[in-house]
Input
Amino acid sequence: MAKHLAKDSVEPQLVPGKLRFYSMRYCPYAQRVQLVLNAKKIPHDPVFINLSDKPEWYLNIFPAGKVPALIYDGKFLSESLHLADFLDEQYPEPPLWKNGPLQKILDKIFIESFGKVTSAFYKLMMTTPELEKSNFNELVESLKPVEDELAQRDSKYFGGSSPQMIDYMIWPWFERFDSIEPVSKGLFIFPLDKFPKLEKWKNAMVAEEAVAAYHLPPDKHAQHFIYRKSGLPAAFNF
Amino acid sequence: MAKHLAKDSVEPQLVPGKLRFYSMRYCPYAQRVQLVLNAKKIPHDPVFINLSDKPEWYLNIFPAGKVPALIYDGKFLSESLHLADFLDEQYPEPPLWKNGPLQKILDKIFIESFGKVTSAFYKLMMTTPELEKSNFNELVESLKPVEDELAQRDSKYFGGSSPQMIDYMIWPWFERFDSIEPVSKGLFIFPLDKFPKLEKWKNAMVAEEAVAAYHLPPDKHAQHFIYRKSGLPAAFNF
Output
């Protein structure tokens, strides 16, 4: 489905008029940038990198070998949150930080605090062969302040009446929560019904054009987690 | 010289018309924000926090208990780079990201890569009782890409003809390099003459109004490092 370039690949030529976007189809950080590209309808040329068997040409450009990254005007740019901000400034329409400087820093602090959720999710999915109850509980617990935040904002999206940067930056993990069920063979199901605000928000988000265009079903994400844990090279190509 | 509030202190009342700025006189991250406040001449009310014996009232507002932080419009805001960006957007004059979105993200990536320098400096000054040659060499080595960057930019400041955010964000560590000599009792002296571009830049920076107003001499920084390593409570008040 998504071909990921590996060690012996050749660097694809840049496509005139399109931003080169180095990505990985199952990477939540790359998805953040993809959502911004989609929301702003920025012409781009995605190149997927096999992170288990990195292309030599990619390591030559970027020794850290990470995604997401963009090439803009010949410059290599990295880090999802920096890329999101850069795209918002370089391509102002529609603005994704429309609520002013104070709300922007508050949202950035919130996005950083969301690191508790991303760590808990990673720990649940990746650090032990079987999914563990204590890790599952930790993940569920980590979502409580997120539900509270949305309740306090009392808006459809975290950003107000339309999705803003904050919504796109946290979305990729919500898409993946549904893969907990197939990965755990039905043992754990993310209890979204315990988070009524987030449940409504998630339903609204998945219907958004920018989100829907890159959405993957739970079994695809599940397959990636299972492959990655097994160490199979197929992890990046299916 | 600078009174730092400790455990049993009382939260000082906000000063009308001034931003409350939670700081620590010897913290390089707090200094970043101080430099932006100075450069933009933003009225502020600094409150120094004793980080070895944190005030209970501060932990109640901010459980992480870190500095720097600001209170703006009743909201508690933290993280030096976020605060710097917030101040630049909320108080646009003079602009400190004046070179456009592309240069801004390149500078942000550079500021992050400067983490190698800050880690090497911390390791040299704080992790062993005596300063070690290998750590000193590592610090010197970490400055080479910084010298190269300034040489490539071929401008007086990293930001061009005037100091920009990038200059202020990395400055605090350069101020502290001179304290290596007194802390090591003359054993190590930072070889700034091996970095001619940085040497000129440093001389220009220290003469800048925003920098000079908060500059401390090497022996003050040295005293703080020595106190901190000894674990003496005096570390924050002298």
Summary: Chain A has twelve helices and five strands. Chain A touches chain B through 20 residues (CB under 8 Å). Strands of chain A lie at 4-5, 19-23, 44-49, 69-72, 75-78. The radius of gyration of chain A is 18 Å.
